[in-house]
Amino acid sequence: MIPQSFISDLLNRVDIVDVVGRYVQLKKGGANFMGLCPFHNEKSPSFTVSPTKQFYHCFGCGAHGTSIGFMIEYSGMGFVDAVKELAQNCGMVVPEQDDKIPPAQRAQMQAQSMALSEAMNLAADYYKSQLRSAPNAIGYLKSRGLTGEIAARFALGFAPNGWDNLRSVFPNYEALALVEAGLVIDRVDEEGNHRKRYDRFRERVMFPIRNTKGQVIAFGGRIMEQGEPKYLNSPETPLFSKGHELYGLFEARQAIRDAGYVLVTEGYMDVVALAQMGFPQSVATLGTACTSTHVQKLLRQTDTVIFSFDGDKAGRRAAQRALEACLPHVSDNKTIKFLFLPAEHDPDSYIREYGAPAFEQQVHEAMPLSQFLLRVVSAEHDLSEPEGRARVQFEAKPLLQAMTPSALRLQIVRGLATMTQSSPGEIEQLYELSKPVAEVRRAPQRSSRPQPVGLELQIVRHLVAHPPLAFTIDEAGLGAFTNFGEEAAERLYQLIAAAIALGPQGSFAALAQHLKEQGSEYDGIISEIAAEPESDFDAIKTYLSSAIRQIRTDALKAELAQLFASGLSSSEIGVRYREITAMQDQLLREAEAELSAR
């Protein structure tokens, strides 16, 4: 877990204008910067970046956040990866409580990572330059209908024939980094002695594989004639894990947002050809089955994922593995579908034979996950016989157990129940599903605490906008919040604790990032603050102390009224009366001192 104080320090060091400016063209507009929102289609800019608040806000779609939030939303990174990326760019090292790696070893690992990245970049540039003088490779790409523009977009290259062409790129061809990056292979004899080193990729069209930051981390090489393997991929390296990366995701991010869905295919050429034919929202798994990590990455980019598989048996098996990877991440606000083309076609060949409109129609008619799941479990069993229906239930059990309780799971349970002549309750009981929803009445959801209003709302807003104000509130001030009620006081205590955890230099951006991680309770307030001009800290500080003083004064007046109405004797009232009037006098002196100091 990364300490909040580090998050605060990081957001104080990075400049959100620089971070956003790498991906969005910004122009100065008054105190802020303006640009076209990267999260929705617009023709006139409504996307603002505030250098004083270190916050972005779109008046069109409502998107808002910090530098960390932008990296997460734009690139699809996880929170920790976004923090590490920003920290690396400004020379900070992310502290992790569970990090047991000694500093010297960590420094060595970072040096290794940099060496591998440099090697991959040099190799990518070399392969790209070789494509310009390779008529056979250019002819092959043209025969697949690709233009020079699309080849440049995906930085396609060519590895010429020969055993050690990379020797011209790397003066130290024997460097260990070349093996670790998967660019060369060391041949060893039976005794394990090194005999010869040679290039891994030879006479292949090269597809650079980029991570979400745009860095080349691996290659896929396709043979142009007959031969095996048709595709040769980089091995697993410290930079590259097939189960975590998706080809084309870096290039497709904006197109995915524009289209509202991502199309997942099986091969590099499918991605490039589909982009050429008007479907740039396509990505591909890297010669491996779709994994849970793949699904998580995709659902960070969009709410709709459509898997496109060949119609043959291999494509059906791949689709079933993708289904299994998706089930733990299924929710009622996400849509997952499966597109099956005729057995003789892949997306590339289908779109060339029938055209883009026909393929788009296939996309729209893709099979929903629920339908595909029921088809998978029932395809090979006779539903007219008890044994067949029992077998269907047996096949479905692990799939439904992998799903979290949701309305969609209930719908699948009902479909399965109808198919197998059972009731939904019987299915849930038979499968021992967690939190069954078919037969058991669920307890009403606990209502969230009421939204702040009036003076409480103003105090909350000012604390969110200026977290260092939390350090100005003493014990008496904290005690005054109980006058708003128990839940309201608890909200203010939690907010003040979060602000103090950021340190005296805590910013609106840092606190907003923290609150966003906790839930959506403050989203409206954060959005309003982001859209407003910067408020004056000293003026707000004076207002806050005055407001707290007024709350305490009103509370003392109310207590005095209760005291006189209590029916107690004068002697019994006297002690508390003197205490209350002394506190009132103190509050009055504080107000006068503050007024004279202005």
Note down, in words, how this protein is organized.
The chain is of the alpha+beta class and 598 residues long. It folds into five domains: 4-89, Alpha-Beta Complex (DNA Primase, Chain A), CATH 3.90.580.10; 103-233, DNA primase, catalytic core, N-terminal domain (DNA primase DNAg catalytic core, N-terminal domain); 249-365, Dna Topoisomerase Vi A Subunit, Chain: A, domain 2, CATH 3.40.1360; 375-431, Pheromone ER-1; 454-597, no CATH class. The protein is 51% helix and 12% strand. The strands form four sheets. Strands 1-2-3-4-5 form a five-stranded antiparallel sheet. InterPro entries: DNA_helicase_N/primase_C (IPR016136), DNA_primase_core_N_sf (IPR037068), DNA_primase_DnaB-bd (IPR019475), DNA_primase_DnaG (IPR006295), DNA_primase_DnaG_DnaB-bd_dom (IPR013173), DNA_primase_Znf_CHC2 (IPR036977), DnaG_bac (IPR030846), DNAG_N (IPR013264). A zinc finger (CHC2-type) spans 37-61. Its EC number is 2.7.7.101.
Q: Which spans of ≥5 residues are poorly predicted at pLDDT below 50?
A: 439-447
The value of Rg in angstroms is 31 Å
User: Count the helices. How many?
Assistant: 25
Compute the number of strand runs. 16
What percentage of residues falls in helices of 4 or more residues? 40-55%
- Choose one word for the global shape: globular
Tell me the structural class. Answer: alpha+beta
Distance between the termini: 44 Å
Strand content: 5-15%
Largest sheet: 5 strands, antiparallel
Mean pLDDT: 86
Number of domains: 5
For the biggest β-sheet, the strand order reads 1-2-3-4-5
